[in-house]
Amino acid sequence: MTAGTASLDAADAPDNVPVGIGLILVAVLLLSSMDAAIKLLGERYPLMQLVFLRSLIGVVPVLAHVAVTRQWHALRTRNMPGHLLRGVFSLCAMGLFFASLQALSLPDATALFFVAPLIMTALSVPLLKEHVGPRRWAAVVVGLCGVLIIVRPGNGVFGWAALLPMGAALSYSLIIVATRFVGRSETAPAMALWYTAVPITVGAAAMPFVWVAPTPVDWLIFAAAGCCGGFGILLLSAAFRLAPVGALAPFDYTALLWAAAWGWLIWSDLPDLWTLVGVAVIAASGLYIIRREAVARRAAKKNPRPGGPGGDG
Q1: Which of 259, 237, 256 is nearest to 248 (CA)?
Q2: CA 77, CA 217: separation in Å to the nearest integer?
Q3: CA angle, 306 as apex, 303 and 312 as ends, to 5°?
Q4: Which of 36, 193, 248, 289 has the smallest set of CB atoms within 10 Å of its CB?
């Protein structure tokens, strides 16, 4: 589950773009591998068990990072309500996307989840009071047309299942909005740790009712999924600290290639021509929005004004 990471705030000045690109490529591979592992496990285990074990095991890399860097003090929080709100959105995003993996092919679920940058753009107006110009609104509309190309009502993957990854994208977009507020007072380790508190708590409460004992092999797959998720998020954070969003955004879309590769290797699923066309439209729209946001931010620095970034959008 990687779409939309390019919309996370990054440092104002680039530091080491080549290293940042390397980190995001590895991060996307890890997160895409996690998605494939979860889809494989979803054939045998209930949804809440997938969410619980992915979240619980995913905390281990975060705690290991904090222990190695001796940043235990960074786990303190001054905004627990904000963390809990992000946790609720996290539970929704993870649950909906994992459910979509049980109902759709990996390439289709991943492609539909990539509407997240489009949703974030739309939400930035009412929730963040940002200015979105006609060009970005046009890109949102074009991107939604790409969604219609993929689902193709009456012929493609149209149905209730197609709503699951898009619901996950909406929840993920709300996570990003909440992060922009919570991140003003909280450290990255604290946000990474408390982000999982709600999924772990809710999942633990459900385990007595849904638990299915994993086989030894499946325990290894669960461990791999959790570790890939945890390390993937850490590497994403590091990448966006080293390089600007505009430099890294195109590489986030390599998730679509990995989804197609895993889908073919494990399930012999390959996207058809129309799905590829829809993916191309969504990706082009998302990248255009990211580029326009960068232009707007530069304009806002030169000519600050109330109500968010400047420029014509």
Answers
A1: 237
A2: 37
A3: 55
A4: 193
